[in-house]
């Protein structure tokens, strides 16, 4: 078997290929005919170029480094606000993450974004109204096990958690390495009605609030042209909350914070976890959540009544 490569400097009968077993390799067509094994030697040069580009890309990816990463939850209890006669409000301590990142020089015209991506992997959020029943904020696909986690993006800059301090964009080519800090924070600040949600009565019936949510937060570098994604760091954290309410007491003296008074501190993992596809796309947790109401024989679900 042979392959033909045009070479205008050769005539029929000339020999050029040094490969053992090659005969008169210049045919009457004026094409340089190499045995198949010989063509492999020449095509190897082109393959080497492709591999070189691939290797350079790999070296660049592996050269993006995290100099320092910090993650914590403020060591303060959840605060409770009873100033409204319509709703109870509470504010949890903040989860905070920050990182110092070093990106090597970008040799060509391409753009990289480094930032935080967050997803919710578990949610329990129940508001109890004594014997009347309860209401619950739910993420149906997560609850049914259809997805591992749901995006906690700001709903605009998918898949990023935000687009201010949460990301940094580097536009190539650059001659020097880029060093920068990126940070994010998260907490809960919802309102829960004192009265039963489906009732026309304004009488306070709320007896307790239970909330338990788990999140995974990734530090990621992404090539905007190729969508190549490099996971640099993985953090896991959890926020738990219990509030006991005596609705018969005067406003301002009804609610009491139960344990935990202080949250577990986040875990910065030594080995990165993969990002589930559902954590990178719409909908985010706020848009996907449903408000389920369970009272007596009444059952109602309203999708996305607001932020929980």
Automatic annotation (TrEMBL):
Region (Disordered): which ranges? 250-275
Q: Which InterPro entries match?
A: FAM78
Q: Locate the compositionally biased regions of type Polar residues.
A: 260-270
The name this protein carries in UniProt is: Protein FAM78A
Instruction: Name the species this protein comes from.
Output: Grus japonensis (Japanese crane)
């Amino acid at each position: 078997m042979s392959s033909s490569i045009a070479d205008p400097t050769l005539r029929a009968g000339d020999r050029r290929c040094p490969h053992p077993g090659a005969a008169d390799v210049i045919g009457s067509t004026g094409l340089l005919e190499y045995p198949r094994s010989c063509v492999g030697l020449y095509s190897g040069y082109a393959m080497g170029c492709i591999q070189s580009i691939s290797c350079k890309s790999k070296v660049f990816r592996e050269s993006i480094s995290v100099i320092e990463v910090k993650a914590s939850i403020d060591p303060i209890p959840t605060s409770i606000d009873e100033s409204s006669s319509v709703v109870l409000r509470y504010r949890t301590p903040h989860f905070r993450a920050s990182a110092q990142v070093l990106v090597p020089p970008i040799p060509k015209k391409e753009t990289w974004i480094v930032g935080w991506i967050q997803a919710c992997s578990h949610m329990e959020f129940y508001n109890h109204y004594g014997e009347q029943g309860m209401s619950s904020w739910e993420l149906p696909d997560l609850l049914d096990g259809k997805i591992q986690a749901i995006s906690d993006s700001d709903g605009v800059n998918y898949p990023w958690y935000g687009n201010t301090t949460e990301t940094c964009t580097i536009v190539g080519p650059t001659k020097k390495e880029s060093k920068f800090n990126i940070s994010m924070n998260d907490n809960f600040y919802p309102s829960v009605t004192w009265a039963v949600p489906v009732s026309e009565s304004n009488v306070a019936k709320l007896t307790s609030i239970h909330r338990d949510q788990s999140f995974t937060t990734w530090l990621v570098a992404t090539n905007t042209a190729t969508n190549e994604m490099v996971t640099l760091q993985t953090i896991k954290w959890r926020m738990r909350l219990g509030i006991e309410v005596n609705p018969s007491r005067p406003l301002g003296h009804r609610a009491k914070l139960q344990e935990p008074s202080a949250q577990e501190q986040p875990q910065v993992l030594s080995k990165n976890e993969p990002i589930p596809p559902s954590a990178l796309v719409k909908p985010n947790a706020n848009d996907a959540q449903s408000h389920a109401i369970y009272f007596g024989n009444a059952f109602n679900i309203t999708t996305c009544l607001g932020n929980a």
